[in-house]
UniProtKB/TrEMBL annotation:
It comes from the Bacteria. PROSITE patterns: GGDEF, PAC, PAS. Its EC number is 2.7.7.65. PANTHER family: DIGUANYLATE CYCLASE DGCM-RELATED (PTHR45138:SF9), REGULATORY COMPONENTS OF SENSORY TRANSDUCTION SYSTEM (PTHR45138). It comes from Bradyrhizobium guangdongense. The lineage of its organism: Bacteria, Pseudomonadati, Pseudomonadota, Alphaproteobacteria, Hyphomicrobiales. GO terms for biological process: cell adhesion involved in single-species biofilm formation; negative regulation of bacterial-type flagellum-dependent cell motility. Residues 469-604 form the GGDEF domain. Signal peptide: none annotated. This is diguanylate cyclase. One of its GO terms (cellular component) is plasma membrane. Residues 382-434 form the PAC domain. It catalyses: 2 GTP = 3',3'-c-di-GMP + 2 diphosphate. One of its GO terms (molecular function) is diguanylate cyclase activity. Residues 309-382 form the PAS domain.
Length: 627
């Protein structure tokens, strides 16, 4: 009867476990897909915004220049070619006069036709708005390819329409990039305007130009700028999971879609494997049931043997302070000496028949298990310290020594333990450890800010640099702090440092980071495992939290205390931790140079030196034309 009940319960458990695991794994697969798609969508939205931003800034500068000046054609055409070459996403840049004729162009051979019939030209002609207009896709008359047009109005100083400046981006620029991602056999990536107009999609579709009537544009974007949901795809009619992200600065929406079949493909494979394993496990359960009867008989024999031995140890340790216990080889307590009443204020019956681990404090059970593994030979006598609870609820520390005692053979072996109360000794040791720990903390902590000091920071950075492939460092400097000290005095300066340090400590508390006072008014944060872009967000969070302190600074242009932050990430060019700190310091220098109260990422400073498409060449060329 017992075996039959066990068998039924085990079969029910196996089937229930497989069903639960299948349900849980399906939800996990969907959650993982949602996270992956949303992360990819966010990255692609940032890529799209970056793709538009550089031409946008360039068009704004040139529109402003053309408002007041009339550059020489040869020089300005050459400048446009430089700009086009510096921004690989651009096919060409052109300037049309008020009649739609080509005025300037990055194209070597200027076309003779007019672009006055283009919708974007008519929009700028009829509207005084000088903001960037995103239109398309249109078939370029110059290349014959689908093209996205970025355009701005050119006005005279009196506000009259003077023409349009445009930058053309081939749709293929996006589709080629989107095609590098693996989204399964039915996945797709789209970039659309905020009204649902399809600008580019991979894989390409010819029949659909807009999806403005779908729930994405009719409802969801109005509720949230980003999201994840299940739909029937308007492109191919398949059930898909779609993540979307709307860019904050441009009228763009990026979507990433994966078919339900691709998302759950791995789950279905795992389900088939689980079903096979469940079948094998059920066969094993049946075999185990057959062995239970033999186990029951063996247990009866062990019980009789324990009863005989209990009488042998009953007279042990009745008059000693130490507790003597006797256990079988499975760890069940068969005897405990009367001294347990004195030491633990607990009766003997409270221990008899219990597994020894059940009476040990839950945090110390692994330590006792590790000690028991040494009991392989009769000569072994491992010792271990652990905690037990008295009847009053207080904690007692015990030091135990165990040995294996054999009567006739190893099959009859018992475990004998002697437990000594070392509570007072442990309390003295703990007090000494706390004192030593406090001294060590004082040696590694800045006394004013309570953050780690420079010595502790250097040690942590050295270890983190060696242990982590991904590692970011923040250098934070309080803007105009010398003037703050000179104007309000050192007590106010110390209070300011303490408040800023508290903000830094709170902002990095849940990031796994390490915050320190680097020196003077400088602070540093180490973020192991955090890439540069996430580190920049932590830096911006610190900077904004400092602004919210609203600490008065009479000698600062903003009248409030603010900080500048330099961010650097370990990469192939950082040979050691000192190079990483140098990169962060250079980024901090650029933050100061840009006007303070900002965050600068090291990689952006190096890119400006190498590529410099949007500032260095542009400003230099514009300056030469103004001359």
């Amino acid at each position: 009867m017992v075996v039959g009940t066990f068998l039924v319960l085990m079969i029910a458990c196996v089937i229930g476990l497989v069903a639960w695991k299948a349900s849980y794994a399906r939800e996990a697969a969907l959650r993982q897909s949602a996270d992956s798609q949303k992360n990819l969508t966010r990255s692609l939205a940032q890529h799209a915004a970056s793709t538009f931003k550089a031409p946008d800034v360039a068009l704004a500068g040139m529109a402003d220049l053309l408002k007041y000046q009339n550059p020489q054609k040869v020089r300005f055409d050459a400048y446009l070619r430089e700009m086009t070459q510096a921004m690989p996403q651009l096919r060409f840049i052109a300037v049309f006069d008020s009649a739609g004729s080509w005025r300037y162009s990055s194209v070597e051979e200027r076309p003779e036709y007019s672009n006055a019939d283009r919708p974007y030209f008519a929009y700028h002609r009829d509207n005084s708005d000088t903001k960037l207009l995103v239109s398309g896709p249109v078939t370029s008359r110059l290349t014959g390819l689908p093209t996205i047009i970025l355009s701005r109005r050119i006005s005279t100083p009196s506000g009259q329409f003077a023409g349009v400046i445009v930058a053309a981006i081939d749709c293929q620029f996006f589709t080629s990039f989107f095609g590098s991602f693996n989204l399964g056999t039915q996945g797709g990536i789209s970039i659309l305007k905020s009204d649902g107009t399809l600008l580019a999609r991979w894989p390409a579709v010819e029949s659909i130009r807009t999806i403005g009537d779908t729930s994405l544009f009719q409802q969801r974007i109005g509720e949230s700028a980003s999201g994840f949901y299940r739909i029937t795809s308007p492109f191919d009619g398949l059930i898909k999971y779609v993540a979307y992200e709307q860019t904050p600065n441009y009228p763009l929406v990026v979507t990433v879609a994966q078919s339900e079949g691709d998302v759950l493909e791995g789950w279905r494979t795992d389900l088939a494997s689980d079903a096979l394993i469940a079948g094998l496990l059920l066969a094993l359960v049946i075999g185990v049931a057959c062995l239970l009867n033999a186990q029951f008989r063996f247990g009866a024999r062990v019980e009789r043997t324990l009863q005989e031995r209990e009488a042998r140890f009953r007279l042990l340790a009745d008059n000693i302070a130490d507790i003597v216990i006797v256990m079988d080889k499975k760890g069940y307590i068969r005897y405990v000496s009367p001294s347990v009443v004195t030491v633990l204020d607990t009766s003997e019956d409270a221990f008899l028949g219990k597994l020894c681990l059940d009476v040990v404090h839950e945090d110390d059970r692994d330590r006792v298990i590790n000690a028991s593994r040494q009991l392989k030979e009769a000569a072994a006598s491992p010792s271990v310290r652990f905690r037990m609870r008295r009847a009053s609820g207080s904690i007692a520390w015990l030091e135990a020594h165990f040995r294996i005692a054999e009567r006739f053979s190893s099959a009859d072996a018992e475990i004998v333990g002697v437990l000594r109360d070392v509570t007072k000794q442990k309390e003295m040791e703990d007090e000494l450890s706390k004192a030593n720990l406090k001294l060590a903390q004082l040696a590694m902590t800045d006394g004013l800010t309570k953050l780690a000091n420079r010595r502790s920071f250097d040690a942590f950075l050295r270890d983190a640099y060696a242990a982590h492939d991904v590692l970011s460092v923040l250098l934070i400097d309080i803007d105009h702090f010398k003037e703050f000290n000179d104007g309000l005095g050192h007590p106010a300066g110390d209070a300011c440092l303490q408040q800023v340090a508290e903000v830094i400590g709170r902002a990095t508390a849940n990031t796994g980071g390490f915050s320190a006072r680097y020196g003077g008014e400088e602070f540093a944060v180490i973020l192991p495992g955090v890439p540069e872009e996430k580190a920049a967000r932590v830096a911006d969070a610190i900077r904004l939290l400092v602004q919210r302190l609203k600490i008065r600074h009479p000698r600062s242009p903003a009248s409030r205390v603010a900080v500048s932050v330099g961010v650097a990430q370990k990469n192939h060019a950082t040979s050691d931790e000192f190079t990483l700190i140098r990169d962060a310091d250079i980024a901090l220098y650029h933050a100061k140079k840009r006007g303070r109260n900002c965050t600068v990422v090291s990689s952006t400073t190096t890119n400006r030196v190498a590529d410099a498409p949007d500032l260095a060449p542009s400003l230099g060329s514009l300056h030469r034309m103004r001359e």
